[in-house]
Design goal:
The protein is built from 16 helices and 17 strands. By secondary structure, the chain is α/β, with parallel strands linked by helices. Strands 3-4-5-2-1-6-7-10-11 form a nine-stranded mixed sheet, sandwiched between helices. It has a six-stranded parallel sheet with strand order 14-13-12-15-16-17, sandwiched between helices. A two-stranded antiparallel ribbon has the order 8-9. Helix 10 links the parallel strand 13 and strand 14. Bound molecules: adenosine-5'-diphosphate-glucose. The site of adenosine-5'-diphosphate-glucose has 26 residues, from helix 1, strand 13 and helix 11.
Length: 471
């Protein structure tokens, strides 16, 4: 079957977080399973754009309210990602260096979606399904059903996958002029609490809604940044499908970012070599247990409690554990981490920014990965950590609760806690330090988690089954 994925991110073209990882992998494994999966995304000015060959697939024009624009669809020529990749170029609007964070993001992603439906309506064939990811593609199901110019697309079934319901793409009703001529009786399909809400609209109009773990799907009915009632009402078409990981990209035996590769059998020495490299680079002592955090420094990830929690843990362990943080986000949190660098130089370091290569080395070289997330729809970091033999320390929420078993439970290999506060994080770190003092126990846990199969191969069928169930 033919599946069209529409997303703002796709690794390695453009990635800000886990959305990019999923959209860079799921289509690849759908193609490997014998289907035709394609990805359509905005054309940003990324390294991938300049390093690869492109051909023009289509040129069209449309309008965003009173602003008329031309767009070009370019296609990567070699199928190097394992699926057909199409970029939408809208001059001046999408071709920027960053993916998000501009004042005109509403205009950017609305115009992107208009270009997508405009282009699709020129096709002579119909794909089996249009798979939209997050709010940046959330208006597509509405546009396909209720915009007069795109009614031709109304018979194509749509799936919306929610990777993060915190971000909904809110627009004022004064921006309704951006949406191509639509059936005004359908206002309710755009509105949520007095605003145009692209994520809510996607939930209302898509044939099926998925999210990236079972537990998160349950949680959304009681905690979804204002959409709780909508999730309760639409629960009949909602389903949780746990993400996979791309075992070709995330493989400690072949990882292109690592100098020292290792397998389950050689994990002990392999991890130690990576740890030594990491510790040398960041002025840390490789004989101490190494705790890392990788991610966006935002409230959702409980990054705001981490500086204090780490300080307390350094005190309680009397400097017998090291910490390394990689991330960027809220200025206040970044500043707090920066302030800790000097006084704790021998046990703490931080890199503010985004660094794909360093993240791989951290998964490989660390002993423990901290994920105190308040909200975690699925979480990929803990799955990468497990594959690289790094013990995940996670708050019991969303996908973390679905993928990590506490070492105190039968078959357990990780550490779980309940509250995103200093006490729980500190206590979990002390449990980890105790395990570190029992290398045989640590080795058993490592072996156990490295052998867990979270591959996309094992997940792809769940999506195919969902597509087959559509009208
Ligand atoms: N500074 C940095 N430098 C280098 N790499 C960095 C980085 N910050 C983050 N990353 C990488 O970005 C990815 C983060 O993925 P997550 O799934 O954990 O979170 P995110 O909140 O972005 O994704 C959302 O979507 C995904 C996919 O569905 C869900 O798993 C998740 O719960 C949901 O919040 C990982 O590959 C991580 O290594």
């Amino acid at each position: 079957m033919e599946i069209i994925h529409v997303s703002a991110e796709c690794y390695p073209v453009a990635k800000a977080g886990g959305l990019g990882d999923v959209v860079g992998a799921l289509p690849k494994y759908q193609c490997k399973a014998g289907h035709v999966a394609k990805v359509v995304m905005p054309m940003y000015r990324t390294k991938f754009l300049y390093d690869n060959e492109w051909t023009v697939d289509f040129k069209g024009s449309s309008n965003l309210g009173n602003w008329f624009f031309d767009y070009t669809i370019i296609k990567e020529t070699t199928n190097k990602l394992g699926f057909d990749l199409y970029l939408v170029d809208i001059n001046g609007l999408l071709d920027r260096h960053r993916i998000y964070g501009y004042d005109d993001d509403v205009e950017r992603f609305t115009a992107f979606q208009i270009a997508v439906v405009n282009w699709m309506s020129s096709w002579e064939h119909k794909p089996r399904v249009l798979h939209c990811h997050d709010y940046h593609a959330g208006l597509l199901p509405f546009m396909m059903q209720h915009c007069y110019d795109y009614r031709k697309l109304a018979s194509i079934p749509t799936v919306l996958t929610i990777h993060n319901a915190q971000y909904q793409g809110w627009m004022g009703w004064d921006q309704s002029k951006y949406i191509p001529r639509w059936d005004l009786w359908k206002r309710g399909m755009l509105d949520w609490n007095g605003n145009i809400n692209p994520l809510a609209s996607g939930i209302k109009c898509a044939d099926k809604v998925t999210t990236v773990s079972h537990s998160y799907m349950d949680e959304l009915r009681s905690n979804s940044n204002g959409l709780e009632k909508l999730f309760e009402y639409e629960k009949g078409k909602c389903v949780g499908i746990l993400n996979g990981i791309d075992n070709e990209v995330w493989d400690p035996e072949t990882d292109k970012y690592l100098d020292h590769h290792f397998s389950v059998a050689t994990a002990k020495t392999g991890k130690q070599q990576n740890k030594e490299l990491l510790c040398r680079r960041f002025g840390l002592d490789p004989s101490k247990p190494l705790f890392v955090f990788i991610g966006r420094l935002v409230g959702e990830k409980a990054a705001d409690v981490l500086p204090d929690a780490i300080r307390v843990a350094i005190d309680h362990t009397q400097g017998q554990a090291s910490f390394l943080v990689l991330g960027s986000g809220e200025t206040q949190v970044e500043w707090q981490f920066q302030q800790m660098k000097e006084p704790y130089a021998d046990v703490f370091n931080v890199v503010i920014g985004y660094d794909e290569a360093l993240s791989h080395l951290m998964y490989a070289g660390a002993d423990f990965l901290l994920m105190p997330s308040r909200v975690e729809p699925c979480g990929l970091n803990q799955m990468y950590a497990m594959r690289y033999g790094t013990v995940p320390i996670v708050r019991s929420t969303g996908g973390l609760q679905d993928t990590v078993t506490d070492m105190g439970d039968p078959g357990g290999f990780g550490i779980r806690f309940n509250h995103a506060n200093i006490e729980d994080i500190d206590y979990s770190i002390s449990r980890a330090v105790s395990v570190y003092q029992h290398p045989a126990h640590l080795d058993t846990m490592r072996k156990q988690m490295m052998e867990i199969d979270h591959s996309w191969e094992s997940v792809v069928e769940a999506y195919l089954k969902l597509y087959r169930s559509l009208r």
